[in-house]
Amino acid sequence: MCVICGCEGGDTAQGQGVQDHGHDHGHDHEREHGYDRVTVHPGTGDLHYGAGPARVSVPGLSQARAVRIEQSVLGENNRYAAHNRKHFTDHNVLALNLVSSPGSGKTTLLCATINALREQSADLPVGVIEGDQQTSHDADRIRATGAPAIQINTGKGCHLDARMVDDAFHRLPLHHHHGHARHGAVLFIENVGNLVCPAMWDLGETAKVAILSVTEGEDKPLKYPDMFAAARLMILNKIDLLPYLHFDVARCIEYARRINPAIEVLQLSASSGEGMADWLGWIDRQRSALAAPADPVAARIAALERELAAVKAQVAGG
């Protein structure tokens, strides 16, 4: 849970009041050291703070209180996300939420993608919402391609939320786009580099795209299951470096599909251009799907698959 408790002021980071933190000032030794909210492996002594109902430990909060705060904060976020999703649909905008750890090559891939899309269709409406804690370095790189970009600096925040995206989208030319392109416009949302918190925050996007560099290790889907359960597509980036690394591509894909059987996988290098055609083809298919009549049965099946993947990730994580 990415919510700052704020015991002194009685507020969370999202402005939700927190009056009762369930503090027990009569701590015995075990409670003082947090054993009421941690599982201890009997053999190794390893600690697991994600085994309780909240799947997270917040100092000063009981598991039940942590769950209530999370539900309150995420509920408000989801209302903005629903607004965004309708807005994107009404404007015929494909919104892709790019999520990854820092250094995966998101911005380099994004610049290469924008240039390639413009080569295919010079009049394709494209926009970017760029998320970082500080600076506008990445947004400046995007703007150098000629694409409009709005930087969101989150301060201490480690992810974008739906209201931030709504604020930024209204400042992009795409906000005035009304589906005149053949299959619609493309909005790229480059989230803050983080494989944890962005997984649980719905921005109203059409799909989450998890970008994993081959320099990071093939076990990332197992270490960060929520992210890969939430993603529709996993991009293995920087494959031009494979000859110099000990990275098992097949094992990485197997791990990702163990978490999310429905996840699609692409392998590419933004630097060499290898695999970029597959990525552009994937984007075009998603744009085409926006223009196609909705299939309620297919949509329901897809929703059930996502729910099943999320349950499997929760079981794997705790």
Which short descriptors sum up this protein?
single chain; 318 residues; alpha/beta; Rossmann fold; 2 domains; two-stranded antiparallel ribbon; 10 helices; 14% strand
Characterize the structure shown:
- By secondary structure, the protein is α/β, with parallel strands linked by helices.
- The protein has 2 domains: 1-81, no CATH class; 91-308, P-loop containing nucleotide triphosphate hydrolases (Rossmann fold, 3-Layer(aba) Sandwich), CATH 3.40.50.300.
- It has 10 helices and 9 strands.
- It has helices at residues 29-32, 63-90, 106-120, 137-143, 162-169, 220-223, 225-230, 249-259, 276-291, 296-317, and strands spanning 39-40, 47-48, 93-99, 126-132, 149-153, 185-190, 207-213, 233-237, 264-267.
- The strands form 2 sheets. Strands 5-4-6-3-7-8-9 form a 7-stranded parallel β-sheet, with helices on both faces.
- Helix 4 (137-143) links the parallel strand 4 (126-132) and strand 5 (149-153).
- The model is unreliable at 4-35 (pLDDT under 50).
